[in-house]
Amino acid sequence: MGKCLKRDIWVLAGCWATVLTASTLITSASPLAAVSIGINRSVAPFTIGMFLIGAALISAYSAQIFTALGRAKGFGFGCALGLAGGVLGAIAMEVRAAWLIFIACFLIGTSQGLGQFYRFAATEICDEDERAPAVALVLSGGILAAFAGPEAAVGAQSFPWLGLNARYSGCFLLVAVANLINYALIACVRFAPVEAPDEKETPTPLREIFGKPDSICAVSVATFAHTSMVMLMSPLTLAMKDDGFPFRLTSLALELHFFSMYAPGIVGTGYLIKHIGPYAASGLGFVIFAICAVILAISQQLWNFILGMVFNGIAWNICFTSGTVLLTACYEKKDALRVQGINDLVIFGVAGAGSLASGYAYTAIGWDGLVYVVCGLMGLAGVFLAGSYRAASRRADGPEGSKIGSLSFTISPMTGGCPAPAGMVEPWGKSVSSTSSRSAV
What we know:
Elements: H1 6-36, H2 46-60, H3 62-95, H4 98-115, H5 118-124, H6 131-139, H7 141-155, H8 169-186, H9 206-210, H10 213-233, H11 236-242, H12 247-267, H13 269-298, H14 302-328, H15 336-397
Organism: Pelagomonas calceolata
Keywords: Membrane, Transmembrane, Transmembrane helix
Pfam family, one: MFS_1
């Protein structure tokens, strides 16, 4: 990688893998763990909701945390939160404290929220033309975590040699272990110093940034996609258990779902968005969501669960990446940390509420009913996207052009939405041949 510190990039990939391992482990085990200590089945999926809310709230303060502590101590603080969450979760299982398990999942979620910034840390220790492969390498840790988390959940349902009584206490202890490993890896990385904001620069008002139709569409697409994915994923373990599938097969369905969430970003999402644009790619993602719903609604056989959740993961990857690409053209560098934090706050906050709603919906109307609800949500998102696309096209053809049209940005075929040195594209799919300057906001 030339001047890019390849060793540090590999270590950051390991850090990201440990973060996502804890995430996939909690997703696999926490709803079942909640039910096992007497929590109502309609509320049990909200363990994942609390995880997402924790990630949302910490995202709102991420800029302040990293500015005050720096990257190393900021990530270390996240590990400490995840460690505390894992230990509290194990205690909650042992003493059968329902309220404590939700607090534990919340703390683990805050660790996940700060861990999301490993990909940005990778770009800070590389030359500009080496950022795309660096980010791709860091994100590749997600593929390992897709299998490591659920498999760990299967193997750690109980640790009798530790004298634990509850079936899922070991799962939370492994979350704590993952955060300890993460902390040890952080100590091996030479992070770039975090630059404090220039006091002479006046930040753009958030109302102005998020008041633009393109910003609204970008946040909405990513939020619709993440919420729809979470609403199907949260009660999945309960639905499969109710249909008589063992935890091993439930974990297999989740493993392939997680794999489909990250693999497309490495092999093709970037190329897709580069050639057809984020708006069209988002539309394709919504179509794939509809295919997912059809497969899940046909029957509740093993192949329906597995194939449906694979399509769910692919659709999420395309829509979430497309929303990210749209958003990157809506703000200037000085506003990046604030806008990214608010964006994640909205996405994870709404998804957390969706997780809670999915539990009640599954209890009230069953799995098929929940699938129809998500399908309706995707239909609403498709109508919203079509209207936004027409508005963007009219602005692009107007006398002054679209504001986004004058903001050049690039995407990486390897990372599906991260900055890359070449391959300019406008949000509605019209490519530009040369780098254009960012107009004033």
